[in-house]
Design a protein that fits this description.
It is built from 3 helices and no strands. The chain is mostly helical and 70 residues long.
């Protein structure tokens, strides 16, 4: 039972790490290809609240997609 739990935990941890990297790449791709004239990271660093809300919305949408995949 403990071995099965450890294996399951490791699988979920690996899935979470992979999902995090895929999410970061997806947001970079959206930033590069769809928002050519706007750099989200620069706008957030300058204090643009709308850009921060948009970026957080992307992360929340990604989290919802990944949560319902299993």
């Amino acid at each position: 039972l403990i071995r099965a739990s450890a294996i399951t935990f490791t699988m979920h941890l690996a899935f979470g790490v992979i999902a995090l990297f895929i999410g970061a790449l997806a947001i970079k791709a959206i930033d590069h290809f769809l928002l050519r004239k706007i750099d989200l990271e620069e706008e957030i660093a300058r204090g643009n609240l709308a850009a921060a809300v948009y970026a957080s919305g992307l992360w929340i949408a990604l989290a919802m997609i990944l949560a319902f995949m299993r």
